[in-house]
Amino acid sequence: MGNGQTWVNVHHFRYAAGASSPGSTEIDGLDVELYRFYVGTAYGSGTPYLTKVASPASISRIDYTPLIADAGIYSKSHASTATGGTSTLPAEVAAVLTLRTAKRGRRHRGRIYLPAPQTGSTDAAGLWLAAFTTGIIAQYQGMLAALAAKQWVPVVASYGRSLVRDPNDKYDKIEVTWVPYATDITSVTMDVKPDVMRGRK
User: Fold this and answer.
1) For residue 53, which of 6, 30, 61, 71 sits 20 to 30 Å off, Cα-Cα?
2) CA angle 110, 111, 115 (to 5 degrees)
3) Mean pLDDT for each 10-residue chunk of the chain (201 residues)?
């Protein structure tokens, strides 16, 4: 971000329906499309996200961690500065993409908290402009289609554990576990209300 703080987005993808493990060539293909979601050419009517973020925020690196035994991390360096002017909303403000799957329940939905955009992304009531939300959604959907051609599918990952309220003690929590799994993303939405990253207040 422009103030020197790092903002991290985490995405999950499945390669070739899990039938084979991706190597550097396959991850290079993934990197092209994921980077394009943020920077570069629009997918159809989409809007690359960094065109809505104020300079001098930038994207510096994308790290890929295959969730298979003995796999190393692939780091792809990038050096692209945001082009959305110079005035930004407060650092804790986030535009949030909601990732939806064909299944119901919290384990089958995901969120991506995108970095604080430029001023001018909201209307007089403080809500996201329609052009802002539709452009970002279209860009994600365009990425999803481009990745499908490369055998990559964005997924919502469930890591197999969660803390829930203890039914015997309302002040305590217990850990619940299950077999980890991933669910294919079928659509993406963004509501008109800006969200807040509480840790950045």
Assistant:
1) 30
2) 160
3) 86 88 91 94 94 91 85 86 88 92 87 92 93 96 95 89 78 80 91 79 50
The pair of structure tokens assigned to 123 is 């209307």
Predicted TM-score of the model (pTM): 0.87
Give the integer Cα–Cα distance in Å for 9 and 101.
Answer: 19
Distance CA 107, CA 159 (A): 9
Q: Which residue type sits at 177?
A: T
User: What are the structure tokens assigned to 99, written together?
Assistant: 């990732």
What is the maximum alpha-carbon separation in the chain? 55
Could you give the angle at which helices 130-148 and 24-38 cross, rounded to 10 degrees?
A: 170
Alpha carbon separation from 69 to 73, 151, 159, 185 (Å, rounded):
12, 21, 16, 25
Gap between the Cα atoms of 119 and 140, Å rounded: 22
Strands 181-189 and 152-158: antiparallel
CA distance 197 to 98: 15
Structure tokens at 19: 């039938």
